[in-house]
């Protein structure tokens, strides 16, 4: 079957297509149908089935005779350590942790926050929640305490599972003080915390509230898998929106398992027993879908990598991991490749390794620029596949379906829509645009299994954020076009979300921090083009009258404040002071125009601009700090 056949089969009978895909998942009670549209536009999938994610990711492989195969490989160049965990060991470890959580009162439907670095215990914590039908919410370790507090208050967890520390090159990330500060700041208090003590740092536990990962499990009964409905929330993952309040993307269990399993085989070309490596973090959607659940559902081996593309210890690390663990499919972000290319332009470090196991490289998280794609193709001689998706969708919207067939690659395009996604490019009035014309990229409803049915406790926000601009469609927030062959091109965001080193960040959230500074009258944060990270945030500050001589101090203060309130991941390192900001006559700040000026791009003078002269002032101020980059 070709991609065309499979896409057409889905289009002509989506119900049959997804019921067939559901047949590859173990159900305690099989669903009677795929789509449940009685609450449209809140569509659900496989709602009347009974299923358990942990059973499908772990136990069933042990039953099928894969118990001795490695499920997880932890490779940590930061701690110079390596560890393998078989499916049988994983089953025992997860059942034990789940039993201990249950003994402390965690039940189906309870939320559990997980705040952990790239250690296998993070996956075990996710799987233990899944085993009980508890809803996990993993928080990325690069977020600061106030961001963790916002998530605690939004999802009201019964428990928090954290590690004592994370390890960044040259720096220990002290998780425990961040956790304590977040719990202090939050209105909701968890019943208890479980702390995984790492040998690099033993955290001080709070008597009665905190339990150590190991002792907590002594003497408990291991827990069995609890059947949950197909539409039971599997997890909540917060992602950046336009405001400081992150969006809690909900993932339902049944559709999640069906879609991930389908994608592992048909997109990434992975079968049971093969090795898949996504070099991301469990705190992001890539970590949920393709470090934890996807590979394990398939009975493959997943790699938990605690390191960076460069500096741990050198730009050959990707080669070493691929060779030593016989990785078949490798997934990373273009920014990681750019980091390697910058330090090792001729790929000398990687040349030392045998990469014969490697069959494809997948790139996502940001637009894959053709230079980066060509550089990898030239050096690794395997298909390099850009693919496009979002936290909201949980699995690729558009890709080159390597597991079915490798279509001709068009540089700059993440290729074609996957079954389930009817992708349209719309004008402002919501009419489909002719091929080759740039517009808003939208997906006709219903979205396929595995995508978000709503936002956590925020149906109305879900409707407003995604469904109202183009009735009958899901608004992706990306702009792009389809070409005459049906290939998609994703060019930019249509909102104020920026993408820094493959991390999705809210400029609105950073502006909230800047404007809280007592000397700041007005501010804007924009994503300026960056040759390594794609974009980096830059603050523009207008100071209150009489504060002008404080400019140097205020610039330093806001950099520190963003790090303290949002976290190091915001990578907010630069703010400049300007006399005024460019605005429309109705007072809207012209952020997109400033982004173009900072990137040295042409732009059309906005018809509604209040005073065009401001743009020259902004250009000069940006030039003074090196924008556009040469
Ligand atoms: N916990 C705590 N801090 C973290 C962190 C984590 N899990 N991840 C990143 N940070 C910190 C970094 O240490 C850095 O701190 P610093 O300001 O003290 O140096 C800051 O957040 C910014 O990190 P980052 O933007 O990642 O920059 P970097 O210079 O450390 O690394 C790259 C640059 C390109 C090597 C790195 O960003 C990378 O590997 N990116 C790939 C991203 C990716 O896989 N994304 C997933 C989508 S597929
Ligand atoms: P996240 O939710 O963090 O996965 O970020 C999703 C956003 O990242 C998308 O809406 C895009 O703006 C951007 N993105 C992800 N992958 C790609 C890609 N392959 N090409 C272009 N943009 C991408």
From TrEMBL:
<dbReference type="InterPro" id="IPR042099">
    <property type="entry name" value="ANL_N_sf"/>
</dbReference>
<dbReference type="GO" id="GO:0050218">
    <property type="term" value="F:propionate-CoA ligase activity"/>
</dbReference>
<feature type="domain" description="AMP-dependent synthetase/ligase">
    <location>
        <begin position="68"/>
        <end position="445"/>
    </location>
</feature>
<dbReference type="Pfam" id="PF00501">
    <property type="entry name" value="AMP-binding"/>
</dbReference>
<feature type="domain" description="Acetyl-coenzyme A synthetase N-terminal">
    <location>
        <begin position="3"/>
        <end position="57"/>
    </location>
</feature>
<dbReference type="GO" id="GO:0070013">
    <property type="term" value="C:intracellular organelle lumen"/>
</dbReference>
<dbReference type="InterPro" id="IPR000873">
    <property type="entry name" value="AMP-dep_synth/lig_dom"/>
</dbReference>
<comment type="similarity">
    <text>Belongs to the ATP-dependent AMP-binding enzyme family.</text>
</comment>
<dbReference type="InterPro" id="IPR020845">
    <property type="entry name" value="AMP-binding_CS"/>
</dbReference>
<dbReference type="Pfam" id="PF16177">
    <property type="entry name" value="ACAS_N"/>
</dbReference>
<dbReference type="Pfam" id="PF13193">
    <property type="entry name" value="AMP-binding_C"/>
</dbReference>
<protein>
    <submittedName>
        <fullName>Propionyl-CoA synthetase</fullName>
    </submittedName>
</protein>
<dbReference type="InterPro" id="IPR045851">
    <property type="entry name" value="AMP-bd_C_sf"/>
</dbReference>
<dbReference type="InterPro" id="IPR032387">
    <property type="entry name" value="ACAS_N"/>
</dbReference>
<feature type="domain" description="AMP-binding enzyme C-terminal">
    <location>
        <begin position="510"/>
        <end position="588"/>
    </location>
</feature>
<dbReference type="InterPro" id="IPR025110">
    <property type="entry name" value="AMP-bd_C"/>
</dbReference>
